[in-house]
Amino acid sequence: QVRLVESGGGLVQAGGSLRLSCAASGRTFAMAWFRQAPGKERELVAAISWMGDTTSYADSVKGRFTISRVNAKNTVYLQMNSLKPEDTAVYFCAAGKSFSFIRISYDVGVWGQGTQVTVSS
């Protein structure tokens, strides 16, 4: 089974930027980033197709976050700009069960361990 390892989280001031990386131990299909804030359910932030030609975003991050992938490196990225305190959460990388686009948690076959992102006001 593929393993996913996230990196790039940390503490940043509001308005700042961070780039998360997710390195997979092998080939993956569709990929996504989820996040979970304290006391809240895990939510889908961004998703990307296997070829990288299709992406989708939660309304709350549209225009600020960009998901991308480099299949030759088995790596997916999440560029986060104009960060807000409400973006504070643990961010999880997710690999889909198949080539189908990830739309909900049920579509996820493998989860990363998560990386903390904290945005101070």
Task: Walk me through the structure.
- It contains no helices and eleven strands.
- By secondary structure, the protein is mostly beta strands.
- The strands form two sheets. Strands 2, 4, 5, 6, 9, 10 and 11 form a seven-stranded mixed beta sheet that branches. A four-stranded antiparallel beta sheet has the order 1-3-8-7, with no helix packed on it.
- Strand 4 (31-36) and strand 5 form a beta hairpin.
- The protein is globular, with a radius of gyration of 13 Å.
- The termini are far apart.
Total DSSP helices: 0
**Average residue-wise pLDDT:** 96
Question: How much strand?
Answer: over 45%
User: Segments where pLDDT lies below 50 for 5+ residues?
Assistant: none
Q: Strand pairing plus helix content: what structural class?
A: mainly beta
Give me the strand/helix succession: EEEEEEEEEEE
**How many extended strands?**
11
Mass-distribution shape: globular
Radius of gyration in whole Å, from Cα?
13 Å
Features:
121 residues; mainly beta; 50% strand; globular
Please provide a brief summary of the model:
With 121 residues, this protein is mostly beta strands.
Topology summary:
Layout: E1 4-7, E2 10-13, E3 18-24, E4 31-36, E5 43-48, E6 55-57, E7 65-70, E8 75-80, E9 89-96, E10 108-111, E11 115-120
